[in-house]
Amino acid sequence: MTYLILNILFLATLIFFIPNTFKKPTKQWWILLAAVLLLTAVFDPIIIALHIVAYDPTNILGIYWFGAPIEDFFYALYAVLLIPLAWQKIGASRGK
Q: What are the pLDDT digits (tens) for 24-40?
């Protein structure tokens, strides 16, 4: 299984669990996404160059952005989607 297919499956699963009350992204959400993508663009090539993480070249598309495989940026998107949803769920359960 390629990283792209794996990422698409995780994203589809995450979207399936987004509650109906989820509002359209706010300006703060877009700023957060930009910040996380920027941090990914800066630090992922470094940790890849230091061989802390490695990707099997046969399982990636071969498209690189700032030296990191494009599939690596899916994780930033997951974080920006998943953390507010988890926060909303935890906050809702603590408010009861």
A: 788 988 999 999 999 99
CA distance 3 to 72: 9
Q: What's the first-to-final CA gap in the chain, in angstroms? A: 42
- Upper half-sphere CA count for residue 84 (Cβ side, 13 Å): 18
Give the separation between CA 55 and CA 4, rounded to whole angstroms. 12
The torsion angle over the Cα atoms of residues 73, 77, 79 and 80, rounded to 10 degrees, is 140
What does the block give as tokens for 25?
């992204």
* Residue 41 · residue 65 · CB < 8 Å: yes
Q: Please give the Cα distance from 63 to 35 (Å, whole number).
A: 21
